[in-house]
TrEMBL record:
Domain Choloylglycine hydrolase/NAAA C-terminal: 2-310
Pathway(s) the chain acts in: Lipid metabolism; bile acid biosynthesis
Principal EC category: hydrolase
Species annotation: Muricoprocola aceti
Protein name listed in UniProt: choloylglycine hydrolase
Record family assignment: Belongs to the peptidase C59 family.
């Protein structure tokens, strides 16, 4: 499972958890402006916006899981298994392979409005990267400071949803996830009042009772509600450090500790990493399962006019700051 969320303070932030039982070998990867993209069906794009994110680099190609570009447009791909059905090649449309979707949008669109424009003439095809890396069944969130979209290709075509919550998890399809929030409109960060019965002397015997009923399990539908509640009620200062700190708390609400989600005998899904793209500073922050200290890679500290990928392996050992 995975969860993605946006967060707006004075800056704009978007990130995700990547939950799985093994790693594909992920690296923070910066694609500079002159790295040549050879799109499978759309030819070459030699010069484009630079981007930073987590990718599995295969044969010098950045297979991005989540990223942002230098204009502050962000995008993340999450599992959508059993529902994703990609489109056929079409003569009249821009044919983009599923694994190229993040580079296609982030290399060309400076805003969510421009991304929307590209989507209207696009077909998302199931063309696989290689026999070893077959087409993954994903859906995506695309966002900037003006809003967020969810893109889902299903048997009945491509759905582009406005995403007013700025949250994405996995199954079921997004319209159902959004509708499900209706069931939780009574939840509150404030203490509840007794609407049960005036004839009973009911007491709030603990803090936090306004959100009793918020689902606590790790299913995708439950994580959607939980992270939406956490995000919508989040308060933080406006500074970069206060915002980033709060952002990791938002995604921390859906963190998966090893042992709670068994996917095969003795095999557990865990939060491999949590990321946070800061649109205004160009910094990609992350933590990993075994490194809770927030690390960062700043795209502007690199030569963004170069033509070769810049790669940073994630620091994955706990950094414990001993004080004595
Ligand atoms: C496994 C991850 C989703 C985790 C998740 O959601 N687990 C819940 C399971 S459940 O659905 O809830 O049961 C997803 C998210 C992004 C994916 C990569 C995207 C680029 C590339 C696309 C190519 O086509 C195939 C290889 C490729 C490297 C992909 C590998 C893998 O597929 C990645 C890492």
């Amino acid at each position: 499972m995975c969860t993605a969320a946006t967060y707006q303070t004075r800056g704009f932030y978007m990130g995700r958890t990547l939950d799985y039982e093994f790693s594909y070998g992920d690296e923070i990867t910066i694609t500079p402006r002159n790295y040549p993209f050879h799109f499978r069906h759309m030819g070459d794009v030699i010069s484009h916006y630079a981007m930073i994110g987590t990718a599995h680099v295969a044969g010098d190609y950045p297979l991005y899981y989540d990223a942002m570009n230098e204009k502050g447009l962000c995008m993340a791909g999450l599992n959508f298994v059993g529902n994703a059905v990609f489109q056929e090649l079409s003569d009249s449309r821009d044919n983009v392979a599923q694994f190229e979707f993040i580079p296609w949008i982030l290399s060309q669109a400076a805003s969510l409005a421009e991304a929307r424009e590209l989507l209207t003439r696009m077909s998302l095809t199931g063309t696989s990267f290689s026999p070893e890396l077959p087409t993954a069944q994903l859906h995506w969130m695309i966002a900037d400071k003006t809003g967020a979209l969810t893109v889902e290709c299903m048997a009945d075509g491509m759905h582009i949803y406005e995403n007013p919550v700025g949250v994405l998890t996995n199954n079921p399809p997004f319209d159902k996830q959004l509708f499900h929030l209706n069931d939780f409109m009574h939840l509150s960060a404030k203490q509840p009042e007794n609407h049960f019965s005036p004839d009973l002397n009911l007491q709030t015997y603990s803090r936090g009772m306004g959100a009793l009923g918020l689902p606590g399990d790790l299913s995708s539908a439950s994580r959607f509600v939980r992270v939406a509640f956490t995000k919508m009620n989040s308060r933080s200062g406006d500074s970069e450090s206060e915002s980033v700190s709060q952002f990791f708390h938002i995604l921390g609400s859906v963190d998966q500790p090893r042992g709670c989600c068994e996917v095969a005998e003795g095999n557990y899904e865990i939060t491999l990493y949590t990321s946070c793209c800061s649109a205004d500073t160009g910094i990609y922050y992350y933590t990993t399962y075994e490194n809770h200290q927030i690390s960062g890679v700043d795209m502007y500290r690199e030569n963004l006019d170069s033509d070769t990928l810049i790669r940073y392996p994630m620091l994955s050992n706990e950094q414990i700051h001993m004080q004595n």
